[in-house]
Every structure is written in structure tokens, then in C-alpha cells.
Write a structure and sequence with these properties.
Helices cover 33% and strands 22% of the residues. With 229 residues, the chain is α/β, with parallel strands linked by helices. The chain has one domain (3-224): Spore Coat Polysaccharide Biosynthesis Protein SpsA, Chain A (Alpha-Beta Complex). The strands form 3 sheets. A 5-stranded mixed β-sheet has the order 3-2-1-4-9, with helices on both faces. Strands 8-5-10 form a 3-stranded mixed β-sheet. Strand 6 and strand 7 (147-151) form a beta hairpin. Helix 1 (32-42) runs parallel beside helix 2 and helix 5 crosses helix 6 (188-194). It is globular. The protein starts with a strand and ends in a 5-residue tail after the last helix. Bound molecules: cytidine-5'-monophosphate.
Length: 229
């Protein structure tokens, strides 16, 4: 396929307080990673690189096989790094064939719908990066120590989600630049924009939230439970 999806799953998930790496924690009978991959494989056919926590490559491989079914030849597992940026870089090095568009997706957003993945892939152009985002609903303040300095205009802000999509050639160059400079970026869109390329946003989805703390895991469990309690 002309598209690859790098699913970064190598985080430890310290804030979740579980024994296992976050991606391998169960939501229901299936793990966070398995749910994320189920949606990835329901999207348009793509090469799928799972970036696994060191020492858990075998678990990631099992989840990949289970989600991929008869498309298992499209998938590959590699070992992640100490930061998310290093994990994405490891994923980029594992691409093979004529991939033109690369999507980078957090395994920690397991309920991200396949339609969101497809929409991002379709919005990528020769030079343009794409991220899904939601309007900001909270009232935000700029602070300095304990002082509230000012209200921040919400209309100028969005909350970024994943997958974030990019033309492969420019994303690889942007990663090479970041490696040279030693800079660490918040997300792939920031790294890509720092290399001078445009990024646009498209509508995200409320269910594409990131699992960070135990309450997020509970929310995912409720959304997946039959009663939708
Ligand atoms: O920690 P956080 O949830 O913000 O991480 C976002 C995503 O990046 C997660 O899916 C996590 O597994 C991944 N990650 C990674 N390698 C790291 C740190 C985070 O693949 N070293």
C-alpha cells in the first residue's frame, strides 16, 4: 500500500499506574493496543508498523496478528525508544516499499475510529501535514507563578489528536533535521512544522481521546460495555 501507519505503543504509562506498559493493559478482554489496531485494520489497507516497548515485542506481535487476520503480511513490530520521538523514528526506519504517506498514531487512543484514520490519510498532500483536532472546551488562563495573567482566546486553540499524517519524504527529512539539532518536539506536527512545512487540522472525534490516567481507562471501558452505562 502507498500508506503506512506507525502505531507508537512503547510508552510505559506511568500515570496509569498499571503493572504492564499502557498499550498492553486490558480495556475489556482486549488490550489498548488491540483495540487501536482493530480500527487501524478497518481503515483503508496500509502497511502497519507497531512500535513496541522493549521486552514486549512478542506481546505486540500477538496483538498485531490477532488484529490483522489475513492481512498479517502488512504488519511489522519494531522496538521503541526512550521518547515518543525516538519511537516514531524507529517506526520510520522500518518502512519498506513504496510508501508515500505516513500516519503516526498513538496506541493510547484505542477508540479512534477507522473513519478518522482514513480522513487524515486522504487530506495529506505533497507537502501538507494533517492532524485531527477538537475545539477546546475548558476556560484557559495564562499564568505566571500564582498570578493569573490573562484569559487565553479559545477560538485560536484546538486540542490535537492522532493519527497525524504527512508525505513520507518530507517527514523523513524533518526527522533527520530533528536528529541533527537534538530538538525534542511535542508531537510530529510540531517537528514537521519546525522544518518549514504547512500543517492543517481536520475535525477529530471525542472518542479518540488519549488514555493517560485511570479515569480515561474507565471511560473507554464504559464506551465499550454493552449497556453503555
Ligand atoms: O505518554 P503518552 O500517552 O502521551 O504517549 C503517547 C503515545 O506515544 C503512546 O501511545 C505511547 O505508547 C507512545 N510512546 C512511545 N514511546 C515512548 C513514549 C511514548 O511509543 N518512549
Amino acid at each position: 500500500p502507498a500508506t503506512a501507519i506507525i502505531v507508537v505503543a512503547a510508552g510505559s504509562g506511568t500515570r496509569l499506574g498499571a503493572d504492564a506498559p499502557k498499550a498492553l493493559v486490558g480495556i475489556d478482554e482486549h488490550s489498548v493496543l488491540r483495540h487501536a489496531l482493530d480500527q487501524v485494520f478497518q481503515a483503508a489497507p496500509a502497511q502497519v508498523i507497531v512500535v513496541a516497548p522493549a521486552g514486549h515485542e512478542g506481546d505486540a506481535e500477538s496483538e498485531l496478528r490477532a488484529a490483522a487476520g489475513d492481512r498479517v503480511e502488512l504488519g511489522r513490530v519494531v522496538t521503541g525508544g526512550a521518547t515518543r520521538q525516538q519511537s516514531v523514528a524507529a517506526g520510520l526506519r522500518a518502512l519498506w516499499g513504496d510508501v508515500e504517506t505516513v500516519l503516526v498514531h498513538d496506541a493510547a487512543r484505542p477508540l479512534t475510529p477507522a473513519a478518522q484514520i482514513d480522513a487524515v490519510a486522504q487530506a495529506v498532500t505533497d507537502d501538507r501535514g494533517v492532524l485531527p483536532a477538537l475545539p477546546v472546551v475548558n476556560t484557559l488562563k495564562r499564568v505566571s507563578g500564582s498570578a493569573v495573567v490573562e484569559a487565553v482566546d479559545r477560538s485560536e486553540l484546538v486540542a490535537a489528536q492522532t493519527p497525524q499524517g504527512f508525505p513520507r519524504a518530507l517527514l523523513e527529512k524533518a526527522y533527520a533535521l530533528a536528529l541533527d539539532s537534538g530538538a525534542e518536539y511535542t508531537d510530529d506536527a510540531a517537528l514537521y512544522a519546525a522544518a518549514g512545512h504547512p500543517v492543517v487540522h481536520i475535525p477529530g472525534s471525542p472518542v479518540a481521546f488519549k488514555i493517560t490516567v485511570p479515569a480515561d481507562l474507565e471511560r473507554a471501558r464504559r464506551l465499550l460495555s454493552p449497556e453503555r452505562g
